[in-house]
Amino acid sequence: AGQLLVTEYDGNRVRVVSGSGETGTLTAETGFVGPFAVLALDANELLVQTDFDPSGEKTDSSGTIWRVPFSTGVATPLAQGLGRPRGLVLLASGKVAVTDREHDTVSILDPATGALTLLAGGADQPGYANDAGARARFDEPIGIALLPDGALAIADAGNHCLRRVAMDGAVTTLAGAPEAGMPGMIDGTSAQARFDRPAALAIDLAGTLYVSDTIGHRIRRVRPDGTVETLAGDGLAGFRNGAGASAEFYGQEGLAVVSDGSILYVADGNAGDGSAFHRLRQLTIP
Predict the structure, then answer these.
(1) Structure pTM?
(2) Does residue 111 contact residue 42 with C-beta atoms inside 8 Å?
(3) Could you tell me the mean pLDDT of each successive run of 10 residues in the chain, 286 residues long?
(4) Closest Cα partner for 99 from 114, 84, 110?
(5) Which of 18, 114, 120, 238 falls 20 to 30 Å from 91 in CA-CA distance?
(6) Sheet holding 63-69, edge to edge
(7) Which of the 8 DSSP states describes residue 214?
(8) What pairs with residue 13 in β-bridges?
(9) 3-state secondary structure 131-149
(10) What is the DSSP letter of 30?
């Protein structure tokens, strides 16, 4: 319907923003605390992740995924006992791929039952390894996107690179490298490029991937041929509108792109430090 879904972490709400910028609240209720990831399952229902469990507790296993119907906005727990499920993406099968930043895994969620099945990564074993299934290693996987070939793109924040996960669990590096002490804002081919804690991902219908480099305070683009480019941001933490390198971001933790790739929306928050950065930004893509 051309609306943006926004999780307001500090406000414990899911908001709906129209194309003209008008906002409304979809859900805000007792026990629904710290929402982050959000996914429209279909035209009738959302899945929303919170860092807190339904009793309001926050631990390393309090992450909860909720069902939220558009018609009522009433949140019902679907899966509990998770870490920090920071990415949700709908698969062609109707199931949902989930990244867990806390436990360093990528799993598949069945929305019908709430059952979660490991796809790749060693639970609570952070590291870097291109391998299959539980032998693969991630370090704080956050953003997730579905690639045109049906595989997953993962923003592996702690390793400063993007990973590719096939539906059989095979993991490879999509762009960047996990070289110790070498994160940075280098454009170029997928092998040459370097990222600085990539977090949010979005992808358009042409297969172009958009990446938020959170420590680098920039928005990057990965073309289908693997070429990495910087779209916006001067690398400094702040707020400034402008074109390309004249713009500034602070805590760009969420991305959404329109299907034709002409506009990218950026949830520019405060990166959890309490600063007064709470804006939705609109980036017109050249």
Answers:
(1) 0.96
(2) no
(3) 90 92 90 95 95 96 96 95 97 97 98 97 97 98 98 97 98 92 87 95 97 96 96 95 96 94 95 87 94
(4) 84
(5) 18
(6) 35-40, 45-50, 63-69, 76-82
(7) T
(8) 8
(9) CEHHHCECCCEEEEEECCC
(10) T
| 63 and 100 Cβ atoms separated by less than 8 Å | yes
Residue labelled with tokens 């050249």: 286
Contacts of 166 (CB under 8 A, 6+ apart): 151, 152
Look at the block and give the residue holding tokens 């949700």: 88
Residue where the block lists tokens 């996990």: 178
* Burial (Cβ within 10 Å: 0-12, 13-18, ≥19) of residue 166: middle
64: how many CB neighbours lie within 10 A of its CB? Answer: 25
Output phi, psi for 257, to 5 deg: -120, 140
Contacting residues for 274 by C-beta, under 8 A, at least 6 apart? none
In whole angstroms, give the CA distance from residue 221 to residue 188. 11
How would DSSP label each residue in 108-128?
A: EE-TTT--EEEEES-TT----
Neighbours of 256 (CB within 10 A): 17
Alpha carbon of residue 104 to chain centroid: 14
Q: Quote the tokens at residue 53.
A: 């469990």
CA distance 128 to 141: 11
> Tokens 């558009």 identify what position?
70
